[in-house]
Amino acid sequence: MGLPVEKAVETVATYNDYCDRKDDADFGKDPQYLVKVAQGPFYGFELNVGAFCTMGGLQVSTENEVLDDNGDKIDGLYAAGNDAAGLAGDTYGPNMPGTCVGYAFYSGRNSGKHAASYTKNLTVTE
């Protein structure tokens, strides 16, 4: 991989120190999410620059309800992230880095919120 081992060891030691102090001086990570890198085995891989997102996907409402071919919602069916990329319509700009990830976070939360609300109104039958 060409990883400078000494630098990696130093970085892990610094991070583990942040965990001990419950203070991430580099990135301000919330202390409750600081977990020491302490026990292996550890694996790595080379990552190249790239982009991934869909230009299409399922058409969804503003509540992330999946729409049928007529534009009518399909009760109880929600989609999020790249599966719901249809929310962006024909205006999604692939040259805007990070927009795909941001929408994945937002749409997942939005789908969950509206799906939970939907289930509160269901009648259970046996």
From TrEMBL:
Q: Name the domain of life.
A: Bacteria
Q: Which molecular function GO terms apply here?
A: steroid dehydrogenase activity, acting on the CH-CH group of donors
Q: Which residues form the FAD-dependent oxidoreductase 2 FAD-binding domain?
A: 3-88
Database matches in SUPFAM superfamilies:
Succinate dehydrogenase/fumarate reductase flavoprotein, catalytic domain
The processes (GO biological process) annotated in the record are: steroid metabolic process
The secretion signal range is none
Q: Which cofactor does it need?
A: FAD
Keywords from the named record: FAD, Flavoprotein, Oxidoreductase
Xref: InterPro entries: FAD-dep_OxRdtase_2_FAD-bd, FAD-oxidoreductase_2, FAD/NAD-bd_sf, Succ_DH/fumarate_Rdtase_cat_sf
Q: Which Gene3D superfamilies match?
A: FAD/NAD(P)-binding domain, Succinate dehydrogenase/fumarate reductase flavoprotein, catalytic domain
| PANTHER family reported in the protein's UniProt record | 3-OXOSTEROID 1-DEHYDROGENASE (PTHR43400:SF10), FUMARATE REDUCTASE (PTHR43400)
Protein name, per record: Fumarate reductase
Q: Which organism is it from?
A: Secundilactobacillus collinoides DSM 20515 = JCM 1123
